Amino acid sequence: MSKRFFVGVDSGTSVVKAVLTDLRGEELAVAVENTPVETPKEGWSEFDLHKDWEGVVRAISKLLHENQVAPEEIMAVAVTGKAWGCCYLDRKNEPVRKGILWNDARSGPYIQEWVRNGVLSEVFRINGNYYWPGDYAPITRWLIDEEPSNAGRVTTALLPSDWIAYKLTGKLKVVPGDVSSLFDIKRREYSDTLFDLLGISGMRDKFPNPTCSTQVAGEVTREAAEVTHLKVGTPVVLAGPDVSTCAVGVGVVDPGDVCIILGTAHIVSTCLDDPVVRPETGTFLTYVDGKYLRLVAPMVATTNLDWYLGNFCQEDYEKAKLGGTDVFEFLEKQLEGISPGANGVIYHPYLNPAGERCPFTKLTAKANFFGLSMYHTRYHLLRAIYEGVAFSGYDCLLACNVDLRNIMLSGGGAKSTVWGGIEADILGKTVKLPVGKEFGAKGAVITAMVAMGLFPDHRTAIQNVVRIKRVFEPHHKHHELYGKIFQLYRSITSHLWEDWDFAAEILREAKSFE
Predict the structure, then answer these.
(1) Is 374 in the same domain as 315?
(2) Are 361 and 115 in contact (CB under 8 A)?
(3) Taking the model in full, what pTM does it have?
(4) pLDDT for residue 1 is more than 50
(5) Which of 296, 320, 339 is the last residue in one of the domains?
(6) What share of the chain is helix, strand, coil (3-state, %, to 5)?
(7) Fewest C-beta atoms under 10 Å: which of 50, 248, 432, 489?
(8) What integer pLDDT is reported at residue 253 of this predicted model?
(9) pLDDT tens, residue by residue, 483-510
(10) CA dist., res. 26 & res. 469, Å (int)
């Protein structure tokens, strides 16, 4: 009897991953392909849909070839990928223009106007989502106003992962998690009122009606099989955007379950039985097959670390290389000597050009270090970055008024034992790190397992598939200290609120001289 496997495809912002798992959800192998992010103008973030598909093709082909997996051994392909943003297709199902990504800032003026005139409050009342520039609703409004010829050619609007599923199956599908920010969240269906409020009613029929993610979306076509080396007819499951599949992949399935993603973005998601659209804050509410997932998603997390390492830690890279170790391992050892609080340095991680979206919407927000003196080293600043990102997530959880019970950690930052310990200390709760690395793909595979009948539902699948690798317990005295530092963290934000706007005006004036 031949072996049976699943392939989980996670088409991320700049990287595509194809993950091979067994029927127990164990990660056996990963193939990675880079996909370029294009920035044709300041604040714009786009991608070529065809290059994205080519990256998926290369990743799947490499995964099967390098692991000597026969096409008939693949039980199903599970697809997930970058959330929000938008892709627009014409009547031939070809891209009308480049896809626009979740971290794009071009529609910021619409958000500002909708805040001023109360539209965003009305949107939140209907669906519990507080838009930011990279959401598909304001992006679609921008397309109508700024590229009317392109808008007139659109026949279908999709999320990036939906495009990948289409290229595999030839079928245009979306699932509720893809399009729920245009839903009446309580009725779990598109809201015509929202389309009218946002000035995009002419696009209402361009968004496909969603189907359940635990249903097979289609089968691998002959054309897709020829390039990926999958078998024609292999079932394909569209599991939804990566923010929801990652939550499933770490085991978030009951109220009180929390998933913290320390990835490119900092996403904190909690499971709910019923939709909660208050308090009004920068949160997002989505519907995933019988459950609601409330997300608070600050713009960047590990991007702060990447920026810092790239600009200030060349000497550490050289020392790590001479010592025959990884630079992150080297830095972890340096941070062990820095006490909680980073000797008075506080960092606000608002590094994205589009500002911040959670737990507040402030398009002019900027990152900053506070409390520097000549006695601080770059390691104090690095620890402050770790703590600042964790404070940002804590700020979001407090805004949601969530009863924390079961906290799971994931994302690239979860590899850091220092960061995991900081998260536990700030939250004052036990934090668990599950076995595995590619939790977005794993959650997609779990959904595929349900779709293929291996398990009756997500809860049963999670009980059989998700296992714990490490547990971080909070240190009581550290938690008390962090509570005081967090008060200062918030106070600094409030004092900078108007100054961020003033700084943005000054920057615009300065650029006029260029």
Answers:
(1) yes
(2) yes
(3) 0.86
(4) no
(5) 296
(6) 45, 20, 35
(7) 50
(8) 85
(9) 999 999 999 999 999 999 999 999 989 9
(10) 13
